[in-house]
Here is the input.
Amino acid sequence: MQRPYKIALVGNPNSGKSSLFNSLTGLNQKVGNFPGVTVDKKTGVSKISETFSAHIIDLPGTYSLYPKSADERVTYDVLLNSHSKDRPDMIVVIADASNLKRNLLFCSQIMDLKIPVVIALTMMDIARQKGMTIDTAGLQRMMGLPVIPINPRKNKGIPQLKKTIADVKESNATTPADFIDTLALGGEWLEEVRTICQLDSAYSALHVVCNYTELTWLKAAQRIRIAALIDEVKFHKSRVQAEEIMQRYQRIGNIMQQCVVEESPIKRMVLSDRLDKILLHPLWGNLALLFVLFVLFQSIFWLAAYPMNWVEQGFSALGGWLNTVMSDNFFKDLLINGLLAGVSGIAVFIPQIMILFGFITILEDSGYMARISFLTDRLMRSVGLNGRSVMPLISGMACAVPAIMATRTIQNKKERLITIMVTPLMSCSARLPVYSILIGLVIPNRYYLGFISLQGLVFMGLYLLGFFMALIVAKVMSFVVSVKERTFFLMELPVYRAPRWKNAGITMVEKAKIFVRDAGKIIIIISLLLWVLASYGPSKQMRAVEEKYSKLEQEQPAQKTELERAHATEKLEHSYAGIMGHGIEPAIRPLGFDWKIGIALITSFAAREVFVGTMATLYSVGDEDAGSTTLRDKMRAAKKPDGTAVYTLATGLSLLIFYVFAMQCMSTLAIVKRETRSWKYPVIQFIYMGGIAYLCSLLVYQLFK
Here is the structure.
């Protein structure tokens, strides 16, 4: 079988690489992991011409071929290792025209690896706004490579790029000429290293010499021979690297002088600069950030209210209809009180989840998310982190699993570990259904000034509470974790761009699908299992309950309705689920929780959103009108044995606080284990988050009861 032709996309972060990947591959893409590491591997198939299709590999963004993070090391290993199965046949370097000098440094390093290269020049519109005029023909001549201006967001230049790729392949173009003379820089002995390691270029040999102790694909014998050569020639790594960068920038400066014209020696202030004067201001920037969060959480209640009502009413109507058309039997009970109750309990929150993901996508697409990292860097540093930790923390508002994976970009081991340990404290989308139903139960639907929702304010408060607790825990851990490595936060701020509404819409739909598919599978399985556990119990106890109420119904026929409700309640208490709930009730009673909530705490450890499905199932078992009333109404009507309401303000707030802090997610614990390569950290995480949740819930319940 012929090996597929592989094209790697490389470039600096925020250069437009991911947009080009999406434009080339469309829906023909998949995500996996690079061999031996947990870094995401995005690959796809692109039809370059009528007769030629290529496998596209989207390599992690990097600023140079000297890696500083896990993501950059993946790019480094793939490009350097001539035996890698991901080794590309061609490289497309995405270069940001508005920051051309810095981007050409990385491009020049790629050229010297001796793999066919095509330069895709992005951000030409931003360069023009800055008053820059780029002679692409001259740049192509001086670099000795094809240079194609593109705008993948608007699909401009893509056909020309594809044609150039096809031409380079068909012509079997020779590899790029040397940008700098590596042998003159490092010495003729690099040719011997090249032969030992079977490398494509002297520049690859230079990199192997600089990093041979860290390259896992080198054999022991190769390392020994390289070490001996280094000792023999007295190789000075830092001096050679510094000279290399100086030589590259010297030639790049000459290229820039001949190919780039700037309108004025003082760079024009573009729109991004003007906006940043406000949005990055110590006072106005933080106020703007709070306003953005305020709008987000108000919208989650305001915009989602109507579709949520439609979904809720639709399921109620479906349950009522099934209740009337189906005869009373095992399957009717299983379908309405088990399956439908569990699914409806979670489906109603899909509109809120879509709005949350839509807002996050717009913030990322517009360039504002990077400003949030910059703006909060000082706050992060005060607790032992830096601005790079903000992106995983914000991503944790959607889901902790990809957020923890995003910590790979953090170079400092201590900061990365602390960020992993505190990220689950950020309120993720799985908590959203729990927050929504409990806020709707115990917080009045009140508006201030006609448009500020009290429920929305509480919602925002819960998210901020998780964030500030994450900062407190990070500060404590900064004293405990003993790593002395020091880092600096350097970040490129992308220009502000109008968000792609189509992209936001697609993301909302895709995330909703993923939520329904992933959470739905768990919810359906747990709902059906819970229905069995709630419908059956030890035969001796269940028989005693049946005999008791059979006798009472004969003695008191006039109270049949009341007896049926009491019968259903007592049957549930003596079921296997009831026994589980009563088993942990003594531990959770000080928090204001009853045994039914105890069952939900157990089942929602699989995933927090299962709490809602569990309550829907528990309050439906034995209820003749289960399908025709909403879960919120059932929970509002729930009573304790003494006749008082189960969900008081104190109980509701206590439960909300518990879910803000508790580690109720197996998937998160699994990903923490994978990223830290130890069970020690997920165990510590589970214990400390559970302890905080219990103590804070206890305090809140005692204050408000």
In short: Residues 31-38, 624-628 have pLDDT under 50 and may be disordered. The longest strand covers residues 40-49. The domain at 6-178 is CATH 3.40.50.300 (Rossmann fold).
